[in-house]
Amino acid sequence: MARARNIKPSFFHNDILASLEPIDRLAFIGLWTIADFKGCIEYRPLKIKAMILPYDNCDFEKIAINLDKSGFIRMYSVQGIDYIKIINFEKHKNPHKNERDKGSDIPDYDEQVVDSIN
Description:
Strand content: 5-15%
Radius of gyration: 14 Å
Helix content: 25-40%
Number of strands: 4
Structural class: alpha+beta
Largest sheet: 4 strands, antiparallel
Shape: globular
Number of helices: 6
């Protein structure tokens, strides 16, 4: 389920983010709207592309790799299922209390437990 998320003005002044292609930056914002309250998403590239970039001719797998290499997301796998963690999501976003209370079935990123997809 898509969620409303705010964009802070500092987003537009991030030098590392500015080095990415505009479609990568737009996809990064789009990921916020489909992430759970922890900033985690099941990594299904075709589904994600359809949800956040339905009208753009782009390869979401390449976009995800660019965002991962730049440190904005982490791609990981738990028990054979692939996920994305938006780094610093919980620092910058304040999900609604009901969303947190509902919880999530998506396992959070933990460097000690998960395997990197790349």
